[in-house]
User: Fold this.
Amino acid sequence: MAVPTHIPSWYAATANAAPDHPLLQGEHSADVVVLGAGIAGLSTALELAERGYSVMVLEAERVGWGASGRSGGQAIFGYGCDISKIEAQLGYADARKLFDWSVEGVDMIAERIGRYGIECDWTPGHAHAAIKPSHVDELKQWQDDLQERWGYAGTELWNQARLQQELATERYRALLYDPRSGHLHPLNYTLGLAQAAIGAGNSTIPKGRVRIFEGSRVIGIEQGQQIVFRTAQGQARGKFGVVMGNAWLRHLLPQLETRYMPVGTYICASAPLGAERAQALIRNNMAVADINFVLDYFRLSSDQRMLFGGRCSYSSLDPPGLRSRMRQRMVGVFPQLADVAIDYVWGGYLDITMSRAPHWGRIGNSLYFAQGFSGHGIAATGLAGRVIAEAIDGQAARLDIYQRIKHHAFPGGHLFRTPALVLAMMWYRLKDWL
Ligand SMILES: Cc1cc2nc3c(=O)[nH]c(=O)nc-3n(C[C@H](O)[C@H](O)[C@H](O)COP(=O)(O)OP(=O)(O)OC[C@H]3O[C@@H](n4cnc5c(N)ncnc54)[C@H](O)[C@@H]3O)c2cc1C
Assistant:
């Protein structure tokens, strides 16, 4: 059987060479079996391998096929929800730990890139943007909170005159600039993690400790003395299992699947702009995201295209007229791009929890999971892999704190949860316009 391909995108068109991995056939075993070869699954495999565990990673499609290979690539501290929501449940002391660990998630990226020689265009510098006056107050308050309550120093609040020295747009009134967060080519980062895990290139992991199987969808999970992940043609046994399937699980673990909603989000890549025109748009090459609920996010690619993301969809079909709508959004921020063609448009699903807080934990004694990254997963997935690897290795203190965050199931189960979410989202969209 041919190995599945990535969906067409600018990332797939500029992916580093990577080996095909075999289909799972017959019975195999390892210390740990991981479902999903996105950043979360591969990070778990890498962290376990660094601790001496043998690991099998089963991927339904191809390494980086999911959100990890399609995302905006903006690696930011924090979680999908405001940290105050987590504080309301866990109290300040534990929320502060979670905040600090989210920063570790950002710092891990550059460390791994350095340690394993991953080529993925990592570029520090990120900004959150204010569109309306109330957003400016929000950013100011946020900066104060970050510094005074959460110990996160170094952000800069830029007024319109200052921001326009870096960003050629009239759309924003202020920016909260963070030199520590940044952006990368997410598919190449994910492929690089896979290479590191299997011991290729500069990796110090012994070859054979991590085995990856592509085109190997898990269709059943059995929990007994051992964990067994079944695919159409084989089965993988481990002392531990880890489920890192994001929003793509299909009737495998209802207790997980009812606690997130798959929400589509989209990105377009313009035609190459040339170095001069691209640099004139974002002079310091930072990534930017506005703070609307349905947000725009953008950055330049290494070959000087505008990569512009936004929109949401609650249906399994792509919205009609996607290319021209994405173009409209981009031109709304940069009218000077009105004459520029769009070369690629693609989308993927986010795993949004009801509170947008992360949903990480264990089912029984030996099945672990992390989901609910809620559109904020580039850095947090890497951290989730580390936290779960630690727990499997007998150090569960960090995972235990994440597991205390309560998550409600979406009302309506599989079939009827979408209409409820659409109503809620319409309300938030309306708030963006006010
Ligand atoms: C368009 C888009 C833009 C985004 N932009 C950003 C951004 O700029 N910044 C940010 O922080 N976050 C962003 N996100 C979110 C971020 O990309 C995700 O949170 C993160 O990549 C999730 O990683 P993951 O490993 O959990 O999931 P994925 O990368 O989706 O990997 C899960 C893998 O599991 C596999 N799988 C699922 N079910 C099975 C099964 N039964 N058997 C075997 N394999 C299975 C899937 O095929 C998939 O490859 C974006 C997401 C999208 C879709």
About this structure: The chain has 13 helices and 17 strands. The first strand starts at residue 26 and ends at 35. The two ends are 53 Å apart (CA to CA). The chain has two domains: 10-70+187-259+355-410, 123-183+261-352.
